[in-house]
Amino acid sequence: MADSNAAWLGPSRSDWCDLLHANGYSDDNPEWANMGQGAPETGDLPDGPPRIRNIDLSQWGDGVNEYAPTTGIRELRQAVADYYNQQYRQGMKSQYTYENVCITPGGRAGMARVAAVIGEVYTGYQIPEYTTYSEVLSVFKNLVPVPSALSAEDKYKLHIETLKKEMQDMSLSVIVASNPRNPTGQAIVGDDLEELVQLSRDKVTLIMDEFYSWYQYPDDPKDLGTTLSAARYVQDVEEDPVIIINGLTKGWRLPGWRVAWVVGPKSVISAVGQSGSFLDGGASHVLQAAALPLFEPVRLKQDIISLQKTFRSKRDYALMRLKRMGLEVKVPPRATFYIWLDLSGLKEPINNGLVFFEELLKEKAICVPGIFFDINPSKRRDLFHSPCHHFVRLSFGPAQDHLEKGMDAIERVLAKHKHSAYLMGKK
After folding, report:
1. How far apart are CA 71 and CA 99, in angstroms?
2. Which of 252, 285, 282, 278 is nearest to 51 (CA)?
3. Burial class of residue 195 in the structure, from the number of CB atoms within 10 Å of its CB (0-12 exposed, 13-18 middle, 19+ buried)
4. pLDDT tens by residue, 75-106
5. 288 near 103, Cβ under 8 Å?
6. 175 neighbors 204 (Cβ within 8 angstroms)
7. What is the C-alpha to C-alpha distance for residues 143 and 113, in angstroms, rounded to an integer?
8. Model pTM greater than 0.90?
């Protein structure tokens, strides 16, 4: 870390990856537990629908081997529109159509396309937040980033009145937010989400990253299958400036397909489609066609419920193990598959997320240091006193056996530091 008289701008993601590989990590090494991964397990789940194992190209003819339109194939665009209408807009006059949907090759591409078509504006975001926003807000200079911090003491709640004041005081024209939130595992729901959508009608564009919308853990079994989206509170799909980004990556548990979408007013979607012609070229034609059966309503319901049951079980297991170790999570995740773990109760040096990460590496397990989520576009801010230093993000996205291995590794780190004072591996 830099000396106390110098600005510290935060570590780079390449440094993090270099450390992993320097310590012998590889994806196919069964000795490692990757609790740093931002992807869910991709195999079969109990009571879930069968996974797609084979794709027969002959059913679509030779046309499927051609480039798809940069807005995506019409059939999938309509399937996505139908999904939002069925899940969130039943009985509402204004409905999404295929013209309100653009298919993109992954969520990052979707975010980049949206950023590319927005004019010069002040863009509000909250920290801690998803790391990729830092790159997007750095590359697209027309989006001037304006951060605000959410508080652990307040369970990372986004206060709408505070946001209104920030919009007025700092002339914010765009708000970017993940919902549910990565890395804290919290969510903007109910009246708060409705009020946030209403803010868009005050000439503020909302960009909502909803990749974790299926990862809800209701206490009442009757609520299983309930998902989350700002689409529920949009009055007019053409007039309300609400842009939603989602995809097959998290909910459908198909990160390798790189099929995602942007949903919003037709005028926005048209521009987003055009930006794809020079940014990324569009998503795979084959995988777009193969995705169509995944939107069948009965299958969708089965998929969502099996996911919520499985991931709730893993969340509860991880929280139980951490509590036994004396690491009770102060703000347990109500959504996503992440635990935002506060290390401040530990003794030095492992109360620092970067040190904890390095010590865990020695036990062949991975987490993500919390400082990565104090996103710092273009390195404008000094992060020396960041509130994220004493946190790490643990993922319960991996399969149960990997999660158990990771918890065992944390136990070993704590035991080592209980009996001997270690600093970066030295007594």
Report:
1. 9
2. 252
3. middle
4. 999 999 999 999 999 999 999 999 999 999 99
5. yes
6. yes
7. 13
8. yes
